User: Which sequence fits this backbone?
């Protein structure tokens, strides 16, 4: 692999939340709580976890669609959080996003040709007939016909709308694309088509992906490495092969055990996690996962375990990672 294209260090973001009691004090919801990771040029890094763990917030922080409270995001040696608005506008040519919902991420008042061509105009990459020529080429790249050029988004299926969004993303020839749950709103058969398209254009355009998803099957198929998030923190990071073969964090193990096996004779011996995901407004003391963890001991209630190396580039935040998967706790 090449040198890191993106380096994230101690990234944090909290939101003020109104009290459930009228007139009560606002509370603090820590959505992203000091995460750090590197994204290597040309790779696909998966960011996985349950809804509400901070995945999508992380993606928006990297693009400065949300303002971070602390930390640094270095892209090609420049800290994006310190750039002026004008500098960041220029940098957005390199950083693009594919949104989750293809039904709401496209302007219903614009035709497809205008939607895909708008980035070319904004960044002054083409003008006049050159815009149309490039748009038609992009439409062909993502599997759309030139006949679709003058149509509106409502005339397309969900998979076609996501292809339009991908074409719009490719228009400025980015280096890094953040794919925020790009297939979760699509039917299974269409999901496979979009995933294959994303892999093809990664090779053709030399792209780097941060792929955000809660679907472990999709993550395994497309990602080189995987970072697992729980309540705003990364609890494990490893290659997809290592992670799926032998998870080192109890939460990762629980996620793996929850994946259905397409075998009617398979009998799962995995025990479901007890309780519900704690609120990020008032997370548990120590390791946030300890109330639901079958491996938890006294130390887990007192001190949050650091994200430490476990050989071969693996990281895990668990005091008892060597016991995970080795025996019934």
Assistant:
């Amino acid at each position: 692999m090449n040198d890191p294209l993106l380096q994230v260090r101690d990234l944090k973001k909290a939101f003020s939340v109104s009290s459930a009691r009228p007139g009560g004090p606002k509370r603090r919801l820590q959505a992203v709580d000091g995460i750090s990771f590197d994204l290597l040029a040309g790779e696909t890094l998966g960011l996985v976890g349950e809804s509400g763990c901070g995945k999508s917030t992380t993606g928006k922080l990297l693009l400065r669609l949300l303002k971070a409270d602390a930390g640094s995001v270095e892209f090609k040696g420049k800290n994006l959080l310190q750039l002026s608005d004008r500098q960041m506008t220029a940098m957005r040519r390199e950083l693009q996003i594919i949104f989750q919902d293809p039904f709401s991420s496209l302007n219903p008042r614009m035709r497809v040709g205008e939607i895909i061509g708008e980035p070319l105009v904004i960044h002054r990459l083409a003008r006049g007939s050159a815009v149309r020529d490039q748009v038609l080429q992009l439409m062909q790249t993502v599997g759309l016909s030139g006949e679709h050029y003058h149509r509106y988004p409502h005339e397309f299926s969900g998979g076609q709308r996501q292809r339009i969004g991908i074409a719009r993303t490719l228009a400025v020839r980015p280096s890094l694309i953040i794919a925020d749950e790009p297939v979760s709103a699509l039917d299974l058969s269409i999901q496979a088509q979009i995933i294959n398209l994303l892999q093809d254009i990664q090779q053709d355009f030399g792209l780097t992906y941060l792929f955000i998803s809660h679907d472990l099957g999709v993550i395994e198929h497309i990602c080189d490495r995987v970072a697992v998030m729980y309540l705003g923190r990364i609890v494990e990071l490893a290659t997809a092969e290592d992670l799926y073969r032998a998870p080192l964090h109890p939460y990762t193990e629980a996620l793996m055990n929850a994946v259905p096996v397409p075998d009617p004779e398979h009998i799962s011996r995995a025990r479901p996690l007890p309780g519900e995901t704690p609120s990020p407004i008032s997370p548990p003391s120590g390791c946030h996962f300890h109330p639901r963890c079958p491996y938890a001991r006294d130390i887990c209630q007192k001190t949050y375990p650091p994200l430490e190396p476990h050989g071969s580039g693996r990281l895990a935040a668990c005091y008892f990672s060597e016991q995970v998967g080795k025996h019934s706790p």
